[in-house]
Design goal:
Pfam families: Glucosaminidase (PF01832), LysM (PF01476). This protein has helices spanning about 1-10, 25-40, 45-55, 65-70, 100-115, 130-140, 150-160, 170-180, 185-200, 215-235, 260-265, 270-280, 315-320, 325-330; strands at about 85, 95, 240-245, 250-255, 260, 285, 290, 305, 345. The protein has about 350 residues and is mainly alpha-helical.
């Protein structure tokens, strides 16, 4: 079945149709991979994590999510040493945690549940029994709303989030595509999926090391570091370069975290030019970043686009192969200003004056 799907993808890879997703659908498409990754690490149902994120952020619309990248309403507590922000919740101006990116919020949510004594009983439940987890969270005092468990269950069943309880981080993009077939027409999403498929071909190497009289844990860590390094190198070798629908510009999706110097060496393009092409502020690249191997255009291949949950102007510029400065100019926005979810972004002509 998966092979048939992939064959079908090829014929539509170059197309980008205007698709207006609802806010909560956008949230699921963007953050399901995080939820599945956390499920694999901590055995928390991905459906539960996603439903909680949807509820806490209002589909990514909340002030905490947009300003603090905090998707689960986790307050500072005595053990938090990171950035903070004030927000009125149960009481005025309460202290909430601030994260560098939403992925940290998802990780912290898992750690929060896994290390608090109130939630110990949850981890004795079946990781695929979302109903038991929903009622368990309510019983453990996670939320004060008496209907909390039913609200979570309703979201899980309305959006079929239980599909993510039966997938893995290597298959999650196929699960998203199953729920949202119209993503077949999104060239960037399909490039991401193709790269994930390519990543599947990379198998961790077998490492032989000489025996040394040291702790087993230390030797295991050394072997793990070697395996990670060799796997990472193999993933970078397996980069799939695609042609973007906007004039066929060459781009790819990062298969793993890396430095721009590694991409420069692989493609024989100077770091300076790569940074300029992609309007980067740092040499650090993250997995799933969109990277262009040539300069982007001044306009998009479609007229407008509705900004998704958590999307920045840089994200949109990369998605549609448009120079970020041109995008700001077309939309009469100040440099550094970010769009609101659902905001209409002009990709070809200037936004009409209001």
């Amino acid at each position: 079945m998966r092979k048939l799907l992939v064959i079908g993808f090829v014929s539509v890879l170059g197309l980008v149709k205007a698709q207006s997703w609802k806010t909560e659908d956008q949230y699921i498409q963007k953050f399901a991979p995080y939820a599945v990754e956390e499920m694999e690490k901590y055995k928390i149902p991905a459906s539960i994590t996603l439903a909680q994120g949807l509820l806490e952020t209002g589909g990514g619309q909340s002030r905490l999510a947009q300003l603090g990248k905090n998707h689960f309403g986790i307050k500072c507590k005595e053990d938090w040493t990171g950035k903070t922000m004030s927000h009125t919740d149960d009481a005025p101006n309460e202290c909430f945690r601030v994260y560098e990116d939403p992925k940290q919020s998802y990780e912290d949510h898992s750690v929060f549940l896994a290390t608090r004594k109130y939630y110990v009983g949850l981890f004795k439940l079946d990781a695929k029994d979302y109903k038991a987890w929903a009622h368990g969270l309510k019983k453990a005092g996670y939320a004060t709303n008496p209907r909390y468990a039913h609200i979570l269950i309703d979201k899980i069943e309305r959006y079929k989030l239980y599909e993510f309880d039966n997938t893995s981080k290597d298959e999650v993009y196929y699960a998203i595509l199953k729920l949202y077939p119209a993503l077949n027409n999104d060239a960037v999403f399909m490039a991401q999926l193709s790269q994930e498929k390519q990543n599947d071909k990379v198998t961790p190497p077998t490492i032989k090391v000489d025996y040394k009289q040291s702790s087993y844990a230390k030797q295991q860590n050394q072997v793990s570091d070697i395996v990670d390094s060799k796997t990472r190198t193999a993933l970078l070798k397996n980069i799939l370069v695609k042609n973007h629908p906007n004039d066929g510009l060459k781009f790819f999706v990062m298969p793993v975290d890396a430095d721009i110097s590694e991409i420069s060496k692989k493609f024989g393009i100077s770091e300076k030019r790569l940074i300029k092409f992609n309007e980067l502020e740092s040499s650090k690249l993250a997995k799933n970043d969109i990277i262009f191997l040539e300069g982007k255009n001044s306009s998009g291949n479609k007229a407008t686009y509705k900004a998704g949950t958590g999307e920045t102007m840089h994200d949109i510029a990369q998605k549609f192969a448009i120079k970020e400065k041109k995008l700001y100019s077309k939309n009469r926005m100040n440099q550094g200003e970010q769009p609101k979810s659902g905001q209409l972004i002009y990709l070809q002509n200037k936004r009409p004056r209001s």
